[in-house]
């Protein structure tokens, strides 16, 4: 497909606008906030791999308004989950103004044909090897439409991002406020992918169950950059930084002298390797988000997450907590093994095991996943409105309850978990060490308690 260069265009420079859209709230308004505890790195990565000569601007719509009248030669948009609806709307808008649009990211990669209806080109997969080529093509008036990234075997030598350009970092606040410094977690990437087979997971589908880690010295180098900027709290943006325990041990060992505090999303397998768990704690791990998904083994099997052993959760969670590490539990409700009784049992389990913080999810059939194909074939998908593919909408018809039962149970678990007596029961007595973290989580829990009371649609949006 050929595209005309912009009128009067002579050189190889382009004005590139990179956008991370927000999602629409239930009332159709754009979801906005003024503070966030971390920042994405997708746009800074794209900036870092853009060949010199182009002019790059970035905007994250969660905080900032997107300039719909922006003068640009190319707009690049990323999207995750429900943001895709807004991404398509923005893409349609810029194209109607004659500006070329490129879409990329997980959703787009798994729905190339659909996404191409809203864009001049899509980047399917990791951009490193195709973004410069796409830009060169666009400068020359060429366009392949689909730029499918070749498989990258190694993450060695990934581009270094400019950490002062993180779209959601308020750098002035970071320098002036100790509270903000406690709150903001600098993003860091150690690995890409995940080798587990969970059928609902867009990550393992996107990366085809591959898993790669970056060289430890390159990650430590990024951490030193963060430290030089004054940061001492980092968040791994990985899906599972411990999937290869030997590599994770090497990293944690190397992190010990840096004296950072860190958080990550990872699997319960952390608890099953005492050396790994010990190194995690010694290297500054203060909290981990763990996809427990269900206390019901049948439900775990139904989504191929059988490596989670529900009968070992109590022991595993205690092992992590005993190291002073707070656990953020991620749980899906309404899976195929669940009945209405599961809600009450889940809540009790979370309280008994002193889970620090909770994020609930209703089953979400992300297009391109096996779960999506299965639910589609079974005629169980309730809506194709991507804007509702958030944390808590009835998207899949449950087997042993009605969709209303599922949503009632969802609210019941949240309400019970974040009630004041439940918060006190879960957080006290605190785990050994890291008392400051317990206090920070006490505040976070009380905030959710208030948020849930003040906003009847809050259930779907706790992040
Ligand atoms: C960090 C993260 C977050 C953070 C930060 C978000 C942010 N502002 O960036 C937080 C916690 C806020 C978050 C929230 C959510 N997330 Co999230 N998140 C991730 C995670 C773990 C890493 C993303 C990342 O930064 N990777 C590092 C960067 C460099 O890689 P990348 O984004 O993939 O970009 C590369 C390529 O994809 C490509 N690319 C990406 N975009 C574009 C755009 C263009 C134009 C081009 C050319 C290339 C390109 O180039 C990059 C370099 O190779 C991913 C999982 C994953 N591994 O992808 C999930 C993931 C993207 N999130 C997901 C979801 C669903 C959500 C939520 C809805 C909640 C939830 N259920 O988890 C919310 C949505 C937020 C909202 N407001 O709507 C899903 C998306 C599924 C899908 N099919 O879209 C993922 C894949 C997780 C999963 N297990 O399914 N998330
Ligand atoms: S463990 Fe997590 S990241 Fe890995 S495949 Fe399962 S859901 Fe996806």
Tell me briefly what this model is.
With 463 residues, the chain is an alpha/beta fold.
Task: Write up this protein.
The protein has 463 residues and is α/β, with parallel strands linked by helices. It has 2 domains: 15-148, Response regulator (Rossmann fold, 3-Layer(aba) Sandwich), CATH 3.40.50.2300; 163-461, tm_1862 like domain (pyruvate-formate lyase- activating enzyme), CATH 3.80.30. The chain is 37% helix and 15% strand. It has helices at residues 42-48, 83-96, 106-110, 112-116, 131-139, 171-176, 178-183, 202-206, 216-228, 245-255, 274-282, 297-302, 313-322, 341-352, 370-377, 403-417, 420-427, 435-454, and strands at 15-20, 55-60, 74-78, 100-104, 121-124, 146-148, 186-188, 191-193, 211-213, 233-236, 261-266, 285-293, 326-332, 357-361. Helix 17 packs antiparallel against helix 18. The radius of gyration is 22 Å and the shape is globular. Bound molecules: cobalamin (B12) and iron/sulfur cluster. Iron/sulfur cluster is lined by residues 194, 196, 198, 201, 203-204, 239-240, 267, 291.
Strand content: 5-15%
Number of helices: 18
Which CATH C-level class of the largest domain is it? Alpha Beta
Radius of gyration: 22 Å
Number of strands: 14
Q: Mind describing the biggest β-sheet?
A: 6 strands, parallel
Basic shape: globular
Spatial gap, N to C terminus: 41 Å
Helix coverage percent: 25-40%
Under CATH, the topology of the largest domain can be stated as: pyruvate-formate lyase- activating enzyme
């Amino acid at each position: 497909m050929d595209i005309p260069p912009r009128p009067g265009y002579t050189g190889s420079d382009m004005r590139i606008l990179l956008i991370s859209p927000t999602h629409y709230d239930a009332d159709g308004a754009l979801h906005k906030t003024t503070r966030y505890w971390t920042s994405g790195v997708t746009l800074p990565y794209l900036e870092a791999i853009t060949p010199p000569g182009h002019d790059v601007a970035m905007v994250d719509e969660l905080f900032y308004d997107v300039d719909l009248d922006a003068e640009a030669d190319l707009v690049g948009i990323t999207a995750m989950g429900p943001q895709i609806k807004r991404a398509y709307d923005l893409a349609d808008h810029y194209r109607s103004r004659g500006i070329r649009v490129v879409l990329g990211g997980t959703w787009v990669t798994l729905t190339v044909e659909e996404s191409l209806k809203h864009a001049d080109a899509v980047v399917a997969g990791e951009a490193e090897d195709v973004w410069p080529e796409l830009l060169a093509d666009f400068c020359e008036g060429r366009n392949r439409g689909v730029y499918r990234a070749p498989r990258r075997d190694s993450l060695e030598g990934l581009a270094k991002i400019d950490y002062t350009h993180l779209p959601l970092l308020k750098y002035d606040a970071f320098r002036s406020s100790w509270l903000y410094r406690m709150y903001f977690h600098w993003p860091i990437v150690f690995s890409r992918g995940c080798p587990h087979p969970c059928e609902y997971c867009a990550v393992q589908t996107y990366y085809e169950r591959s898993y790669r880690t970056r060289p430890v010295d390159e990650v430590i180098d990024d951490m030193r950059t963060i430290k030089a900027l004054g940061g001492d709290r980092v968040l791994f943006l990985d899906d599972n930084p411990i999937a290869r325990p030997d590599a994770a041990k090497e990293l944690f060992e190397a992190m010990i002298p840096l004296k950072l505090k860190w958080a990550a999303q990872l699997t319960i397998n952390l608890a099953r390797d005492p050396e790994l768990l010990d190194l995690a704690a010694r290297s500054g791990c203060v909290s981990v988000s763990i996809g427990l998904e269900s206390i019901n083994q049948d439900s775990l099997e139904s989504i191929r997450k059988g490596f989670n052993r529900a009968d070992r959760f109590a022991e595993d969670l205690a092992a992590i907590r005993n190291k002073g590490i707070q656990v953020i539990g991620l749980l899906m409700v309404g899976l195929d093994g669940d009945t209405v009784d599961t809600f009450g049992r889940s809540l009790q389990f979370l309280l008994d095991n002193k889970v620090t913080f909770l994020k609930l999810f209703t089953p979400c059939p992300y297009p391109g996943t096996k779960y999506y194909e299965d639910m589609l074939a079974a005629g169980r998908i309730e809506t194709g409105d991507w804007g509702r593919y958030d944390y808590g909408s009835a998207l899949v018809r449950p087997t042993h309850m009605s969709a209303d039962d599922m949503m009632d149970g969802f609210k019941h678990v949240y309400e019970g978990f974040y009630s004041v007596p439940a918060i006190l029961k879960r957080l006290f007595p605190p785990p050994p060490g890291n008392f400051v973290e317990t206090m920070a989580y006490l505040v976070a829990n009380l905030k959710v308690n208030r948020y849930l009371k003040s906003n009847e649609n809050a259930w779907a949006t706790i992040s």
